[in-house]
Amino acid sequence: MAALTPKDFYEQYQNEEISVSPFTSVKMGLLPGQTSLRIDTYTIACVPYRLAMSNAKYLASFSREEMAFFQRYMKGLIGVTQHIQPANSLQPIKIFARCTMQNLMPMPGRETVGIISVEWKPCPPDLIAMIGDYLMLLERLKQEYGNTEYQPVPINGPNTQLLGYNNFAELTIDKAKHRVAVFLLGTNRLDFLIPLNGPPLDNGQAVMVKLYFKSFQFMARGKVAEVLKLPNGAQKIRAELDFCVELVDILERFRFAAHFDVKPDGDPA
């Protein structure tokens, strides 16, 4: 299959918007501290917040006076510079884009953080390719989610190493955090033990469990599918998970490494 061109990506994904997270930043090759806005003669350090092929939103720090000052440039032409390094690139790539500033407003609850909305004039090909590559990855991982060909992974010594799992998980109930022990992990399933002093759970109850891996820390969300009360008072929980891109990606890479018998450091066994 021929590689997609920026034009192909644009036709397929022009209406898609990406929320930028630590996972997104790594997969897209966004280099930290390497994004800035050029407004008139001013250079403003910022971070990507939302990215699309027609527009984007960036976050930057402003005082109240600065926020009011830069409102005068609304609808004017500005520039955005981003440095990226995709996985297939040996050197960083500099992307410069011209755009119009559509809006500047404080982030709710954080008055010193401004959200700058821009519209590309036009979107540069390298940026289109970066967004398109990530959206293709996302589509593939969604197909992996819940794939019945793959069995859940038992959390034991060798698997923990290969997964890069830190053996730490927190269940959040009513804003309180409780340490739990994960013993089985799948793209759409999470099995864990709640100790004797933990909160009681019921079938169908919504759950949020934060999982700590060497690569990412993230929240897995879902609902309780089964509760088993053990003789010692602990609870054995099976939860059905919603799609979690970080978890599906970690499990995909785990299966690849296990298939080719790769050690956790990436060297062949």
CATH superfamily of the largest domain, by name, is: predicted glycosyltransferase like domains
State the helix count.
Answer: 6
How many β-strand stretches?
A: 15
What's the arrangement of strands in the largest beta sheet?
1-4-5-8-7-6-2-3
Q: What proportion of the residues is helical, as a percent range?
A: 10-25%
Between the first and last Cα atoms, what is the distance in angstroms?
32 Å
Give the oligomeric state: single chain
Please indicate the percent range of residues in DSSP E strands (runs of 2 or more).
Answer: 35-45%
CATH fold topology of the largest domain: Thrombin, subunit H
Provide the low-confidence segments as ranges: 264-269
Q: What would CATH call the class of the largest domain?
A: Mainly Beta
Helix- and strand-based class?
Answer: alpha+beta
Task: State the major sheet.
Answer: 8 strands, antiparallel
Mean pLDDT: 93
Principal-axes shape call: globular
Count of all domains: 2
Query: In the CATH classification, which architecture of the largest domain applies?
Result: Beta Barrel
Cα-atom radius of gyration: 22 Å
